[in-house]
Specification:
Helix content: 40-55%
Number of helices: 10
Number of strands: 5
Radius of gyration: 22 Å
Distance between the termini: 73 Å
Mean pLDDT: 85
Shape: flat
Structural class: alpha+beta
Order of helices and strands: HHHHEEHHHHEEHEH
Largest sheet: 3 strands, antiparallel
Length: 215
């Protein structure tokens, strides 16, 4: 059985994505050393070595959806202008912009989630679990699992990739790093939805017209 702790250990050793680590361990029946070799052979472990390199080039991409009702801007960085102009990198930028449009992440990464938000979530989940009659002894473990789910649903890099639900967005980026040979990172994004934040109210004139029609 492949456990979460095994996946975490392999990820710490190689820097590869969580789903890639899980696939590697599954492929070699949980053998840690063989899993490391498996990732190295696929170039995924090597990608971790590039993570500390400065990525100051890149591109700002955009995506408009639903007839102009949702728009996204995203900045994705790489190391050289040459790579930034390649079709493969541009496709990645577009995919990430589409991801933001479709999945509406609240944060880029889990480290960006304010501590008070997580504490609030933990308290709500704790009360839910207790109301469901769960034994207090396992409540904390349940909360930890649900907090992980919160990260996967609300943090862009941890969300399931819209084109392949078996991979996270971070996994897709890691694969591109291994293939392209440069560090790649998502720096920031903005998502706009038509009418968002505007309190919808019935126009007084329309109300008067409707009232007249009913007379």
């Amino acid at each position: 059985m492949i456990t979460a702790s095994m996946v975490k250990e392999l990820r710490e050793k190689t820097g590869a994505g969580m789903m890639d680590c899980k696939k590697a361990l599954t492929a070699v029946d949980g053998d840690m050393e063989k899993a490391v070799d498996y990732l190295r052979e696929k170039g995924l472990a090597a990608a971790a070595k590039k993570a500390d390199r400065v990525a100051a080039e890149g591109a700002v991409g955009s995506y408009i959806h639903a007839g102009g009702k949702i728009g996204v801007l995203v900045e994705v960085n790489c190391e050289t202008d040459f790579v930034a102009k390649t079709e493969e990198f541009q496709d990645l930028v577009k995919d990430i912009a589409m991801q933001v449009a479709a999945a509406n992440p609240l944060y880029l990464r889990r480290e960006d989630v304010p501590a008070e938000v997580i504490e609030h979530e933990r308290e709500v989940l704790r009360q839910q679990a207790l109301n469901e009659g769960k034994p207090e002894a396992i409540v904390e473990r349940m909360i930890d699992g649900r907090i992980e789910k919160y990260y996967r649903e609300n943090c862009l890099l941890e969300q399931a990739f819209i084109k392949d639900g078996d991979k996270s967005v971070a996994d897709v980026i890691t694969e591109k790093i291994a293939k392209i040979g440069e560090n790649i990172s998502v720096r920031r994004y903005a998502r706009y939805q038509l009418g968002e934040g505007i309190e919808k109210r019935q126009d007084d004139f329309v109300s008067e017209v409707m009232a007249t029609v009913k007379q």
